[in-house]
Design goal:
Blueprint lengths: L3 E3 L2 H5 L7 E6 L5 H14 L4 E6 L19 H11 L3 E3 L3 H4 L19 H4 L3 H16 L3 E5 L3 H13 L5 E5 L19 H32 L4 H10 L3 H4 L2 H6 L5 H15 L6 E9 L13 E11 L2 E11 L7
Parallel strand pairs: 1-4, 2-3, 2-5, 3-4, 5-6
Antiparallel strand pairs: 7-8, 8-9
Helix pairs in contact: 2-3, 6-7, 8-9, 8-12
Amino acid sequence: MTTALLRTAQELHARPREGRRAVVMTMGALHEGHASLIRAARRIAGPDGEVVVTVFVNPLQFGAGEDLDRYPRTLEADLKVAEQAGADAVFAPSVDEVYPGGDPQVRITAGPMGERLEGASRPGHFDGMLTVVAKLLLLTRPDVALYGQKDAQQLALIRRMVRDLNFGIEIVAVPTAREADGLALSSRNRFLSPDERRTALALSRALFAGRDRHAAQEALRARAREVPATQARAEALSAIGESRAAADAHAVATASPGGPAAVRAAARQVLDDAAHYDPPLELDYLALVDPSDFTEIGDDHTGEAVLAVAARVGATRLIDNIPLTFGPLGAAS
């Protein structure tokens, strides 16, 4: 197939349309993570539908001192990636096409959720992101739009906007794509030197440490619940190497499932160690949040959660996250 390059909304709207249109929004510099989104869009659209990939570096979501001018622009290579992944068209509009007459006076406001975590670190970022997403949804007119889980707060805000403002578009999340060593794929990874990249691995290692601690706690509690008597429970716990827990089997059995505090502590230890690497990792935040509003969860939380981290290595700022489930299904998360 040949992927069409479209520069204006008029060109896009003139295309014959059959079946479902699935849209993947990007800022270009496409990599395997984007390709996985496009392949998922192809599956959803089916052979009779259409996959449109947008490539637009949105100036509204870059704050003062951020890397708007530094952000890579590789349209020719992006076309090849999009074509190989199954896109029918790449919509790469100019700034004037998206914002005729200059910066828009009317914008989407992200609200309180947009002021937390990434929003606190990058004031105004989510207002700019939602404004361009709303415009691109209206310009491309999709039935379904796909976004990566790596930008978990962005995904949550888009879902909220589409629901609150009645866009009538299905939003699909696609799991984070990673390198073999665990580093989340990002267009910004190309800015890392070899030494910086080694330090950057602490982000995913911290998340995996939190996840593994969570799984271990769930396994311990499941084992404890199988033993009815307190003394027998203590012996069972001791037998699997949890001597401290065995000292108070009742507390272990009745503690909140999954132990959010222990998950945070396990992840924090990895990040604290990375602060002493050469070059060091400079932590922005580590958070364990409710994905519905991105507030920190308490020890009594049950249901879905997101363990999220942001840090700077050298001049490059990176984010990553993993989903967890607390409660009866927690051991499977």
